[in-house]
Specification:
7-stranded mixed β-sheet, mainly beta, about 130 residues
């Protein structure tokens, strides 16, 4: 049974930083692309950032490019999202997710239905 547990959310002022972590257990973490999504009230769950199973490829939503950085530590079964220069519009519940497909190659998965396991989410609130 795969478990993903996020941590690191909170309240921060605009311009500030937060680092989210997602600890995974239950299967071979290093074989799966990982993604971060976010969902604001009344909106759909949107892709934020992703990192390939090898760590060699990253992909970002245009809205966070240059501000957010995704990384992973396969020895610790953990994926991170460093968020800098936060804006009020970054306010949302942030979820980490694990790809459905092991050792994926080709197009980077950016849709929620391409991910098979999800964490419980962590709230990020950015005040103006």
């Amino acid at each position: 049974q795969v478990q993903l547990v996020e941590s690191g959310g909170g309240l921060v002022q605009a311009g500030g930083s937060l680092r989210l972590s997602c600890a995974a257990s239950g299967r071979t973490f290093s074989s799966y692309t990982m993604g971060w999504f976010r969902q604001a009230p009344g909106k759909e769950r949107d892709f934020v950032a992703g990192i390939s199973w090898s760590g060699g490829t990253t992909h970002y939503a245009d809205s966070v490019k240059g501000r957010f950085t995704i990384s992973r530590d396969n020895a610790k079964n953990t994926v991170y999202l460093q968020m800098n220069s936060l804006k009020p519009e970054d306010t949302a519940v942030y979820y980490c997710a694990e790809d459905r497909r092991p050792l994926r190659v080709g197009a980077f998965p950016v849709f929620p239905n391409e991910y098979g396991y999800w964490g419980q989410g962590t709230q990020v609130t950015v005040s103006s």
